[in-house]
């Protein structure tokens, strides 16, 4: 498939296929061997993650192989991969439960690239792109997760500063973040109007980490409180009252990333399902010869193929500057629900073994279940897709 254009979807260039193939080897040789230790710690109630002793050589290997800053602009030392190539990389990374990311976090990078001014690029984007700084983003609020109309965190101008008051929830990666991108109201608009993005550095007075929230799938999120949190005018990211557009870009990149990761997880589940089906016999018949299993395999392969094409199509359009809000919503819904189905069937094929924490399937299934909520619940996306089609057609 890589050598052809399918339905107008550009094929991966040769150099991008080479990067993807390098990532395949990295995942299989360096990440998958760490899975037993990661799964064992998670099953014992320890934090889901890598130890410093495990992570350090991986980071060194990334630098050695050139797998660092893959979509970072060349001016900052990155490879400047197009989004379509980046999504091929993300798919391969989705095949393992070893929690490792190629620095930096791509969605926030794209938001900073779009909205940061010259000084912010020097102070935040450049060290972030080099992997010397970490970031997170705070959008959701208690009672206003998927609906921006409910956002109540407000920033009020006071002299040369902005004073922020409000509360955010479900924020990832806060303890290790050097700065967060905070969305707050500065105007009177009821939805995207009047929303502004701010860069708030860790340690800013009034920026409080209220609590840590354990999530299924080994993840942890945080609730944040802002009490008279004062930031200077220089911390406004992008144009005042126009923070929704760069935030939407960030969300679209993240939704495509999730689609690619779900494709990778479903592939891994299908590989495991097929191996189990070929090797296990019940009542004198191999599972691979049973129609129910064959249909699961056929359905999974078909939907994985469709999902990959959806992600690649949306990534190509976004990379060309097109609006993909509908496509991103479709990818988000289809990919997460597809992966959930494939993983569930794989777990069923393994029987009791599929219910254990010794296999990666259960952890992937929990992570996909969370993703059906993250970056907008499936129901909200379906509503948005329908509204746009009713208004504008396909």
Write up what this structure looks like:
There is one protein chain. By secondary structure, the protein is an alpha+beta fold. It has 3 domains: 14-130, Acyl-CoA dehydrogenase/oxidase, N-terminal domain (Butyryl-Coa Dehydrogenase, subunit A, domain 1), CATH 1.10.540.10; 135-237, Beta Barrel (Butyryl-CoA Dehydrogenase, subunit A, domain 2), CATH 2.40.110; 245-392, Butyryl-CoA Dehydrogenase, subunit A, domain 3 (Up-down Bundle). The protein is 48% helix and 16% strand. It is built from 11 helices and 10 strands. The strands form 3 sheets. It has a 4-stranded mixed beta sheet. Strand 9 and strand 10 form a beta hairpin. The two termini are 26 Å apart. The relative contact order is 0.11. The mean pLDDT is 92.
State the helical fraction: 40-55%
Distance between the termini: 26 Å
Structural class: alpha+beta
Shape: globular
Low-confidence stretches: none
Total beta strands: 10
CATH architecture annotation of the largest domain: Up-down Bundle
Reported for the largest beta sheet, the result is: 4 strands, mixed
CATH class bucket of the largest domain? Mainly Alpha
Strand order of the largest sheet: 1-4-5-8
Spell out the blueprint of helices and strands.
Blueprint: H1 14-31, H2 35-43, H3 52-65, H4 83-93, H5 106-115, H6 118-129, E1 135-138, E2 154-158, E3 161-172, E4 179-185, E5 195-201, E6 207-214, E7 220-232, E8 236-237, H7 244-279, E9 281-282, E10 285-286, H8 291-319, H9 325-349, H10 361-371, H11 378-392
Helix pairs in contact: 1-4, 4-7, 4-8, 5-7, 7-8, 7-9, 7-10, 8-9, 9-10, 9-11
